[in-house]
Amino acid sequence: MARRATVEEVRAVCTEEELGCARTDEIAPLEAIVGQERAVRALEFGLEIDDRGFNIFVAGLPGTGKNTAVQSFLENVAKSKPTPPDWCYVYNFKEPYNPRAIKLPPGKGVAFARDMKEFIAAARREIPRAFESEEYAKKREETVESFNARRSQLFAALHQRAHEAGFLIQPTPTGLYIIPVIEGEPVKDKDFANLPPEQQQEILRRREELEEDVASTFREVHQIEREANQAIRDLDRQVASFVLGLLVRDLTEKYAAIPAVLSHLEAVQEDIIENLNLFRGGQEGEQKGPPWAREDPFRRYEVNVLVDNSGIAGAPVVMEYNPTYNSLIGRIEREAYFGALVTDFTMIRAGSLHKANGGYLVIPVEELLRNLFAWDGLKRALRERQVVIEDASERFGFFTTKTLQPEPIPLNLKVILLGNPFFYYLLYHYDPDFQELFKVKAEFGTRMDRNPENIRKYAAFFSMLCEK
Length: 468
Hints:
single chain; 468 residues; alpha/beta; 2 domains; five-stranded parallel beta sheet; three-stranded antiparallel beta sheet; 51% helix; AAA_32; P-loop_NTPase; Lon-like_helical; coiled coil
């Protein structure tokens, strides 16, 4: 006769003998995925192929443990992978609106930023000292005296020619005044009018010739002044170059294997030399570039460490549970300045794609599709294999404002989408890009064999969860 079974009769109970332990700390934690051999093989396949398009969609119903299992699996794989490089943004002295990206070995980004800060501080301290030295003052005085002597010789020769032509050159606040001289006495205007017409004509003729001579002399004087100014500028550049050469020597040796850093150091030195007044304590010279560059001229010598992998052993594993466009691609922050929003390269912030670069990025697909522009932004980055930081409004042509356009950063990572199988088939049938970018499907099943081996593995898996 049929009867209703009780809860106790149908509930499967695991004994301590089956589990192999009475407490989770009595069994070694298990990092592997339990009972999902097919999904594991698919994950391993997708991770091993280093080619565009072999990203992974992990499909599974809620409650199958795919999120925790995938994270644990990836973290275990990532331990044996190399740590990816750091990335920094620096000021572009030729194109201020296009910050340059610099790749450094892992952990060197923060050190480079610190070294640049100390270098600029030393330059601001040592350059004024060099220009206050007696040696510099002596060389500058010699240069000025040399050109003053040439100018005095020109004026002396001009006065001599004027005397021989019968004229006196008298300086006035408005220029040089040419006065005729007769019998050693200057001729006043009223006396000039009483002279015979022939004599007046002769004096006027000689005066015109002398005026041409005066104009020619003044052109030579102006040329001498230009040469003098250039000589002083060359002297200043020589002094500044010598000081900077001493200060930058250690940096060039430290970063000799990184051409991008050496190139940036050269650009920094050239910019300092072109803007010596900033370092000599004088008035700021003409500053080119965006408005913010003129407000804080020393900020352009800073280093923005975008990605710092100094604390990572192996490849990064990033779980992005809020996959908005900005959280994936990165963003350019702005701050209010006298009623306007301004920005600079130090306000560029990394997205999950930057942080996971060289490793693995895990995203819940439902949250990804729920956020406007996030899916399109991710696809673009994977297609082009680079991350371009820009506002979504500009990317999709809503409106355009003049802002920064940072140099793209090369992208090399695996993206793992997590979600219900429904979303896999939805994207597979209605988005052609999905088929090209996510060629691997790892499906988590809802059932597994209940045998002693799996029971012990499950206990070890719980041990891992409790340990975390």
